[in-house]
Design goal:
The chain is of the alpha/beta class and about 200 residues long. The chain contains six helices and eleven strands. The N and C termini lie far apart (about 45 Å).
Length: about 200
């Protein structure tokens, strides 16, 4: 598989630097980070080089691993691990941070509590969970384009769709995480930051 054959996301390329600027403000030096739903691997490659991290562990479901592994190998990065949020055994860590981008609106809503609960379990005390993507607030959207995107997702699969940021924060709180920040991002996205108590 050549580099040209590998999956590519223009959105991941555009949002990598804005996300990096957020992460570098919140991550401790030489952090160990688990990424959930690494997809094309573009974020793993970019952040591993851009940020002061000791390890960036990419992961994804089995059907995405082959191309992801190829991209990471080309950059001499650790091989990705297979991780299905609900069905897989999560790597124990402990991790300084868990990061995920553009996954909550793709995975079924019923999987969201598992993502936050498992993140809380494997984070070191004081560790961070950072969730990037589009959200809404009780049906109020940051932009008309987000509303249309939500509708298109639900037409494709009723289990998909933009999530209510307040509900995600409530689930995180019930999982034992402290909501630390909700950061507006370019293209009508947000980054939600949670911290595991010390």
């Amino acid at each position: 598989m050549t580099a040209r054959d590998l999956p590519w996301s223009d959105a991941a390329e555009r949002n990598a630097e804005p996300i990096a600027r957020v992460l570098e403000r919140w991550l401790p030096p030489a952090a160990r980070i688990l990424e959930i739903g690494s997809g094309t691997g573009q974020h793993a490659v970019y952040f591993s080089d851009r940020l002061n991290v000791d390890a960036w562990q990419a992961s994804d479901r089995r059907e995405h691993l082959a191309s992801l592994k190829t991209r990471l190998e080309r950059e001499n990065l650790p091989a990705p691990i297979e991780l299905d949020v609900v069905e897989s055994q999560w790597p124990s860590g402990p991790w300084d941070a868990v990061f995920t981008a553009n996954t909550l609106h793709i995975m079924p809503w019923k999987n969201t509590p598992t993502l936050l609960e498992q993140s809380a379990r494997i984070l070191t005390a004081g560790g961070l969970l950072a969730i990037y993507g589009p959200f809404h607030d009780a049906g109020r959207y940051d932009a008309e384009s987000n509303r249309k995107f939500d509708q298109s997702l639900q037409m494709r699969d009723p289990a998909m769709g933009l999530r209510d940021a307040r509900e995600v924060i409530q689930i995180g709180t019930r999982a034992g995480l402290l909501p630390e920040a909700e950061i507006a991002m370019p293209a009508n996205n947000r980054t939600l930051i949670f911290r595991k108590p010390q």
